[in-house]
User: What shape does this take?
Amino acid sequence: MNRDLPRTNEKAETDSKKNDFFHSLTSQIGSVGKIEIARDSVSEPVIRSWCDAMSESNPLYINQNFAEDSKYKGIIAPPAMLQVWTMSGLHLGNQFQRNSEDSPSAEVYQLLDDAGFTGVVATNAAYHYDEMIKPGDLISGSQKLLDVSVEKTTAIGVGHFVTTETTYSNSHGKQVGSMEFRVLKFRPGTGRKNQQKSSRPKPASNNSTDWFWDACNNKELRIQSCDECGNLQHPPAVRCLLCGSVSLDSVAATGKGNLHSWAIAHYPQVPAFNYPLIVGLVELEEGIRLVSNITDIDPEELEIDMPLEVHWLDVNNEFTLHQFRPKENERQKLESRNDKIDKDRDQSSVSDTNESEAQNVEKQVSKLDPAKVQIGDELPISPVEITTLLIVSTALATRDYQDVHHDPKAAQSKGMPDIFMNILTSTGIVSRWINDWAGPAIEWSSIDLKLGTPNHPDDTMTLSGSVTEKTENGDQISLNISFLGKNDRGVHVSGNAEVLLLKNSKQKE
Ligand code: ZN
Assistant: This one.
């Protein structure tokens, strides 16, 4: 190690600068910003837009008649919208600058921006819900700076974690909830390189099977045939399994067959595959069976013996894999069936007060029987397709106009490969999924989320979770649900939710 004096001095100087910087970052810890009052009171159209973007259909939030019959005697705002009401909104041409009076974190953010920590991602959020928010309520929030971390090296980049706590009140001064929020302010370009989605593993191959995979590369499905007895067999072997002959050849298969059986792989999730992954045993017209992925179909549409046809998956122009999907006419049938379901849905949503509306509400009422929920019960695994539209529409519905949620170039300049989902949406989607499972009688106490790998367009986030705690108190059941949302690159969100269910809520049907 080089111990000459000037270097040591240089280092000491850098250290002291770092100390001064850290001191200025932490000088505001504990201070509380002025109370910020929402620009507008809570309103049904804003609730509806949010529910539309999140695919939330809990009738307590959107159906006047249903909500009036509930204990709330009217529409309530989704608890996951807590943070939305006091968001500053869009101020085009009238650049709105928060000053340190508004929030003590603003000054810290400015110091970090000036020092080159211009990237920002939310990493944690913990919401507590004390009181339901209703249309007409005017929400105000007051923020306290809880902590600024020392410089940390993370996967996204080198930066500082900034933690704040905001408490929210309604117009009567009653606290409706609180949020502990942590962001990472980082130096763009200092993170580990963004991992590409890993590509499909190349099939193991040897002298006796190369010909099969070579044929696949030419988009041809070939079956091993015996020159002596004409037997067809798969997978390829070194001799005929019927007569033992080593004189083997192959014939081209038509690529048509039927679904003999299938399995759905959920766990463990391996990068490069999309889940749920359908592994099918396909009986070819030629009478032999082979294992392949079944694609272009929802698992619940699968039927034994359904006609299938081969298609081909090119992997990085390096090799080609066989896949099977429903035969053309079968696919059209499925599509037209889905179209019809969509149309039925559309029709029932345009008519206002008739029977179909009533059916609609009934459909939304969950079939879960709260009295039967047990520790260990799993929530239905739910894949969420992440699209540009979803990321942008949910950012707008949560009144989050940060450029990284709608502008790819801005996201790239901040060290991200593309736009990404905001934390308010991750909260909204997890809440919606739990609502779908529990039904409208659910009462939210809290939700605690930790964010990891961002959700970018073309990702699929698969939600899974289970009941980890259950406490009964008379008619009320308190549940702790732990959840996980994973995309191909890792865990996007994990955390816990605390909710209350009523034992007798199922009788509504
Ligand atoms: Zn043979």
User: Anything to note?
Assistant: The pocket of zinc ion is lined by residues 226, 228-229, 231, 240, 242-243, 245 (CB under 6 Å). The first helix runs from residue 5 to 26. Residues 1-5, 346-365 have pLDDT under 50 and may be disordered.
